[in-house]
Queue: 2 jobs
Job 1
Amino acid sequence: MGADSLEVPGLGAPPDTEWETVVGLEVHAELATETKLFSASPNRFGGDPNTHIDPVSLGLPGSLPVLNEKAVELAIRVGLALNCRIQPSVFARKNYFYPDMPKDFQISQYDQPINVDGWLELPSGKRVGIERAHLEEDTGKTVHIGGGGRIHEAGYSLVDYNRAGVPLIEIVGHPELRSAEEARQYVAELRSILVAVGASDGKMEEGSLRVDCNVSVRPVGSDRLGTRCEIKNVNSLRSLGRAVEFEARRQIDQLTSGQPIEQQTRHWNEDDGRTHALRSKEEDYDYRYFPEPDLLPLDPSAEWLEQIRQALPALPRDRRLRLTAAAPSVDIDHIALAVERSMDELALAAISGGGAAERVMTHIVQNLADGSGQLTSEALSDLVGMEQAGELTATQAKKVLAVLVESGGSPQDAAQTLGFEAMDTGELESLVDSLIAEHAEEWSRFCDGDGKLTGFFVGQVMKATQGRADGKAVTQILNSRRG
Amino acid sequence: MTAVEIAAAVRSGQRSARSVVDEHLDVIAGGDADIHAFNLVAAAQARARADEIDGAVAAGSDPGPLAGVPVALKDNLCTRGLATTCSSRILEGWAPPYDATVVEQLHNAGAVVVGKTNMDEFAMGSSTENSAFGPTRNPRDTSRVPGGSSGGSAAAVAAGFAPVALGSDTGGSIRQPAALCGVVGVKPTYGLVSRYGLVAFASSLDQIGPFTTTVADAAAVLDVIGGPDARDSTSISDSQPPVSDTLADGVDGLRVGVLAELSGNGIAPDVAARLQAAVGALESAGARVAEASVPAAVYGLSAYYLIAPAEASSNLARYDGVRYGLRVDGSSTPDMNTATRSAGFGDEVKRRIMIGTYALSAGYYDAYYGKAQKVRTLIINDFASVWEQFDLLVSPTSPTTAFSLGERTADPMAMYMSDVCTVPVNLTGQAAMSVPYGVGDDGLPVGVQIMAPALGEPVMFRAAAVLEASL
């Protein structure tokens, strides 16, 4: 080990050192425009290879880019939603050779991006700084034929330029995330914002949202950043969490065994759950950025910015605050989940319609994971009311809810169809009395205080009524009979 | 016949477009073996188009202001279905699927494309010797170069192959060959003519313009190809008044500056003498002439030879063997890219790609590209203050008359000096043109350059018409 290695934070750290993970994310989101960033070809996922193309998106000699105004508007929406400063910006060419990049340069923004200095708030209330959110064009896709799809073993490669020129916004966050879970929350929040403002469909599985994570570790209490590695190919929130966990562990193991971290780009492999070195910093390209001479500088007018600002919908953070105010006793994770599922409006309406907040939120979090379908806020509110009034058991309510989601209507009708009409109290009492008579031995053990017997009698009632009875009401009757 | 005369004759039914086109195709067939102005002569297509125009005239409709006028296009202008080579091996076999905006405009005005003209590869050169298909010769003296890079277009007009040709001017590539071949050549204000479909050399400098034998023809063509184009973001969004309308307005009272930095050192005495004669003619016509100075103009060539290669290094990256043109196989994609580009590009193109790549590299950007852009700003500012005192500036177009083939090919710096008078105006985006004004001691044409502020074409053309008439 040379003297330089002493400069690496953590090297030579005692074995009981506590480590902190530091994560900074770069998120690429495809903007939901009709057409490409610089041409009139459709911006659409899928399609036969090389059908969404034109001279500009193929970079044919003589073609010139013309900026898509809608893409700029969406980028501004994102900037505003991320509390950025919107500034005059300049497009730049990022030069490197790659077969799926038709011009062998990418039109991006470099030293003057459109959005700078923003922040995003996690549901926990923690704010994460946004360095920039700039516009750029996407590349095509290369398919390697033969050799199991790996580039080095492939017999040949085919390129599909349908995606080339699709507008992207690249959102660069500061390295202020401190765990895999925070990284996951950050991306979830960012995705909610992108979807809320209509900028992107946020589909990670279709590649319309792509995440590169920069991971480093340092001893807790250190204020210096460790050497980072950039992880590519993280295609879901779940793999994001796994990749960060793995990479942090790998770096800690390496540092505690006395090996410095090499700055690298690494590839996340979903199958083996590990990151693998792609290239080192020395192998990085010199992109030779310079201002794109075929496009004018972009300077959106104050009026236009104001117009866009006025038209912005409520953002996830505001929606969480509103829902929290209506359901103050509900856990913030559940509030966040409702907003993430875009069911906060439903919850708010059901609560203001008289449904008990906690019960409404329980249904949303536990029973509506697959969407609310035909369910109306009135029906949800009434359903919760029926539960509170003892007209439906929790089990029955869940079944009724499924019907409401599937085909709409009122919970009263659904309950009737399902045969869940609440038993009248007198009927229930005489049933309990006859069961007590039938099971004298169990009854006397119950009266001696054997709590397990409550379950026995409730079970018998349920069996006799095919689940129609309210368990709580049965317990009450049993207790009153014990005297 | 001039273009204006041809169009008038065809529109009035006095002559058929077909006879005009046949006549020019005959001249080409008889003369181009010696000159090599054309990379491709589109004879069948031209005849078919001429017949269409004659049909339109017969049916009583007007085919447009350039009806039946044969036009030669520099081979870096995209023509649908017609090979567009930039005189480079690397575009071998490629025919664009679309027409450049100027090609559409010419078509809509009734012009007939007769062929694609030779050029320095990717417009990099000043003699048309850097063509993969061999040099073009100067019709005035076939031992001399026609200038470049639009040498084929200049030669085509000078040889009578077509009354009109289009070229592109990045650092003088229209004006210098126009001067050396004794024809009119115009570099319009940057943004006046759409670049859509012009294969890019240096995007912030490139501009398309006409070659013609007369000033009025140049005006007629510019009036057709100028104007806004939604497909070029750098196109000027407002329509401009037709240049032809004010062509005869003279120069009485105009303030004309003789640009000192481009008219003294390094200018051959016979060329300088012709400039003096031109200045005299403008004065006689009522212009007030004085010496003008743009001190930063002397740095123009240095700035140009960093900015243009830098942009070119990026613009020419796409010729990688993947999608079109030449492909030389290799064991990997990068090897294929390298093999293709090594085989496909000529030496001058490689030289400029290397200069430009270097100028943009991390650690060198500020010292080279960044500084060149500052010099560019300085030149723009210097010109701006000169325009407060002058309506037009004049200088020689080229320091010398046409030089011999092979004379400067071994010495790139000597070749680059050919552009010293023309480059500053590309850096500023202003309008400029070259007007033939007699001959030098060797009997070869001399051109006078007239420069105007941005969108100063109407005034510039008035002076050009005065010079033309004074000969």
Note: The mean pLDDT of chain B is 97.
Job 2
Amino acid sequence: MTRLDATFSALADPTRRAILARLATGEVTVMELAQPFAMTQPAISRHLKVLEGAGLIVRRVDGTKRPCRLAPAGIDAVEQWLGMLRQTLTKNYERLDGVLAAMSQEQGDKQP
Amino acid sequence: MSKMTLKTEGDTHVVITRRFAAPPEALYRAHTEPALIQKWMLGPEGWTMPVCINELRPGGKFRYEWVNGKGIGFYVTGEFVELVPFSRLVHVERMHLPDVTPDNHIETTFAADGAGTLMTMRMTLPDAASRKAMLSTGMEHGMEASYVRLETLI
């Protein structure tokens, strides 16, 4: 899955958006997250894995805990945006090469 | 031949170049005719563009919608500023995710390059501070709605 797709999918889930909102107030552990959400820790961990894969949160190791926080915004957001743009355009232009080849083929067919 | 370059210029510009084997006229058509746009301007694998409407004149509006078949979608709206067949396109666009992103001002040129075309796309974004403010505002709105839903569940 590409980053763009991963980000959209990650943000599409209301629970994951609520987790992000909770993280906006600062770093928290899985246990602290699980309480207000009335969810099991494994369920929360699965959501965190999706958010981490999409680059929206980062986690660090603290003994047996892995507290998480929002991925740094600002410069990082721009870098992420550029990365998504590069991936999207690379894919688009590969497809466009094919469309242009087909157009030139059609043009050739019309001529005697 | 097909190598793309993408680089930032200052705080607010992004410049993309790409060479194509086809002449400028074909590139211009592929960037303006909906039936052609819908074949390639699709982003990641699995996405399609069911809606592609554009009024090809200065001041004309356009709306492109994408979906990924898994219930996720977004759209882009914008206006054309300048259209010079087959060499130059200027437009302004914004994404709706559904929160709207800052206006992106885009100038695209198609220059004959041997038997092919050198395309140059220059994007101008609002200043870094306003962009950051808008992004965080958009995020807060989305999150507040999620909170409200969550409260009704707990």
Note: The beta strands of chain B are 4-9, 13-20, 48-54, 61-67, 73-84, 88-96, 104-113, 116-124.
